[in-house]
Design brief:
It is a single chain. By secondary structure, this protein is an alpha+beta fold. Helix 6 crosses helix 7. Strand 5 and strand 6 form a beta hairpin. A four-stranded mixed sheet has the order 4-3-5-6, covered by helices on one side. Strands 1-2 form a two-stranded antiparallel ribbon. The termini are far apart. It is globular and about 50 Å long. The chain has two domains: 82 residues, no CATH class; 90 residues, Glutaredoxin (3-Layer(aba) Sandwich). It has ten helices and six strands.
Length: 228
């Protein structure tokens, strides 16, 4: 067994729950090259409700909704018997666009769906998946539930906070990071699990934290250079 392991040319470090002897790139394991880009208009109406997506650059003052996002909003409405039933995916769409769901956004969504303001606020404050305040370009969610806790989740959380120079929920000085603790990311077989925006990192240790942060910073810089 030891000789066999030594001869392996590449060991997948654990993307999307895959570890061991694989001749695969991260893109192949994650399926990024198969899935492709997510159309802002939601694609086919049948899937328009199913993929909230956290973008790196947030637009807290963006209008609700225009252009392709208006098309997606209408597709979402078409999938439900009444507007109240569409509330969760519409809130997801608003958060995708603005980065968080402020009190003003809640009121706008309530008006769009003909719902009481208090009802929408009650839903948003019930679910922890909605950010009610601004977050950094990368929202880092560290699981500290049972499996991850037993495998060093608290230490991973502490490492992210230390290396970003933040307290839980704060935005780092460079605007890149917000770190929070979460209860479960449904990756209990590969602790510690960390979700960064819409991407999962599994089997994370405190030693992995600095290279992960450097990678994310490099992605932000590359995106800024390509956009300039």
């Amino acid at each position: 067994m030891s000789d066999s392991k030594q001869s392996v040319p590449f060991r997948n470090p654990g993307w999307a729950g895959n570890t061991g002897e694989f001749e695969l790139t991260e893109e192949q394991v994650r399926g990024d090259d198969f899935v492709g880009t997510r159309p802002p208009d939601g694609g086919h109406p049948s899937v328009s409700t199913s993929y909230p997506y956290m973008k790196v650059e947030k637009e807290p003052d963006a209008p609700l909704f225009e252009g392709a996002y208006q098309q997606r909003f209408e597709k979402i409405l078409s999938r439900y018997p009444d507007r109240q039933a569409a509330l969760l995916p519409v809130l997801n769409l608003a958060e995708e666009l603005r980065g968080h769901v402020s009190a003003g956004t809640m009121d706008e969504v309530a008006k769009l769906l003909d719902l009481p303001d208090a009802y929408v606020r009650g839903v948003v404050t019930f679910y922890t998946m909605y950010n009610r305040q601004s977050v950094g370009r990368h929202l880092i969610q560290v699981c500290t539930n049972v499996s991850c806790n037993l495998c060093g989740g608290d230490e991973v959380l502490a490492a992210f906070l230390e290396h970003t120079g933040t307290e839980p929920g704060e935005i780092s000085e460079d605007g890149n990071f917000t770190v929070i603790e979460v209860e479960c990311l449904a990756a209990c077989g590969f602790p510690t699990a960390v979700q960064i925006n819409s991407r999962y990192f599994e089997n994370v240790t405190p030693q992995d934290v600095p290279p992960i942060l450097e990678r994310l910073k490099a992605e932000v810089a590359a995106s800024s250079d390509s956009g300039s």
